[in-house]
Amino acid sequence: MEYETPLFFRVMQYASQADRDVIDMVSGNPDWEPPEALREGLREYADLESAAFQYPPSAGLRELREEIAARRGVDVDQVVVTNGAGEANYLAMARALERGRGDEVILTDPVYPYYPGKTTMLGGTQRFVPTDDAGQIDPDAVREAASEQTGAIVVNTPNNPTGAVYPEETMRELVAIAEKYDAVLVSDEVYDHYDLSGKFASALAVDSDNRIVTNAFSKSLSITGFRVGYAVFPPELVEAAKSRHMLVNVAGSRPAQYAVLQALQETDPAYYEANRELLGERVDTFTDALEDTGAEYTRPDGAFYVMARFEGYPGTLENVFRLIDEAGVAGMPGEAFGDSRTEWLRFALVTPRVAEAADRLAEYFG
Ligand SMILES: Cc1ncc(COP(=O)(O)O)c(C=O)c1O
C-alpha cells in the first residue's frame, strides 16, 4: 500500500458534495457528548493567567502524565503525551525502525491504512499477515512471517476495521515473537473503552522491553478534534521518542491536555459504560438489518465498525461513490484496508442515524 493521502478524505469529500442527503458512516468521530468535566476544564482554562497560554512541557503536562502512568501501572517517565494515537503510532514505529534491527514491519490484513502509510513514510517495508474471517490473528502465522528482518509488529485491539478483540494469549505470544527477534510490538489500543466482549487484554499486561502501547482520548472521551494521546515506551526507548516528539511538534496543545486531565479525574465510569451500551445497541440494530438483506457481515467485539459484503457489489471506491449517490449511505471501501477485504464495505456506527442507514441499505440491496 502506498504512502499517500488516506482514501478516507476522498470519500468524505465526495459525500459532502452529493446532491442528496447522505448518512455519514465513514468517519470514526463519536457523535456522543464528551464528559461535562471536559467542557468545564476548557471553560476554566480561558480565565487562567497568561503563563498557561505558553508552551507546556514537551512530553506533556506532568499531572496528565502522572494520571496516565497511575492508570496504566507504569512509570511516569515512560509516558509521552502525543497529538493523538496517530502521533503515538508514528513515534512508536519510528523508534522501532531506527533501532536498525530490521526494516520490515509486520502488519495484519485487513489493516488500519495509516500503518502501511507510516511504514513506507519511515522507510520500512510492509509485510502482511492475513487474519481469519473474524479478524483474529494467529500468532503462529506471525511467527512464520517474523525474521531477523523484522523491526516492528503493529497490531490494533479492539480492531479497526474488523472489530476483533485479541485474547490475552495472543498479546502474550506477539510480545514473545518481538522479543525473539529483538523487534518491537506496537499495540494500538485506541478503542480500549469500546470493548463489547469484556475480553480486551492490553499489551501492557505483558512486561517487556520490546513492546510499546499507544492510545488516545480521542475516542474514549469523544474528542477526536482535541489531539491528545499517549504512548508508553520501555525505559530504554523513551528518550529518543521524546526527542522526536519535540523536534516534530515542539509540544502538544496545553488547553486540550488540561481539559483531558480534568475529565479523567472527574468522570464517573458510568460515562464510558453508557457509550458502550449505546454502541452495543447500534451493533444490534445494524447487524439485524444486514441479516435481513442476506449480506455477510462482521459482528464487532469492540471498536466502532461493521464490515459487510453484498453479493455482486465489491468494496471498490467506485461502488462506495455509487452507494452514496443511489442509497444515501457513505461507507469505506474494503480495498482501503488491504487485499483480503476487497469484496467488503466498512460502516462506522458513530451516527445517530444507524437505523435509518440500515433501512436504506435494506431497501437498496433487499
Ligand atoms: C486504529 C486507529 N488508530 C489510531 C487512530 C487515530 O487516533 P487519533 O485520532 O487519536 O490520532 C484511529 C482513528 O480512527 C484508529 O482507528
TrEMBL record:
UniProtKB keywords: Aminotransferase, Pyridoxal phosphate, Transferase
Any one of the GO BP annotations: amino acid metabolic process
Keyword presence, Transferase: yes
SUPFAM superfamilies linked to this entry: PLP-dependent transferases (SSF53383)
A Pfam family assignment: Aminotran_1_2
Keyword Transport: no
Cofactor: pyridoxal 5'-phosphate
Positions of transmembrane segments: none
Domain Aminotransferase class I/classII large, residue spans: 21-353
Complex formation: Homodimer.
Name listed for the protein in its UniProt record: Aspartate aminotransferase
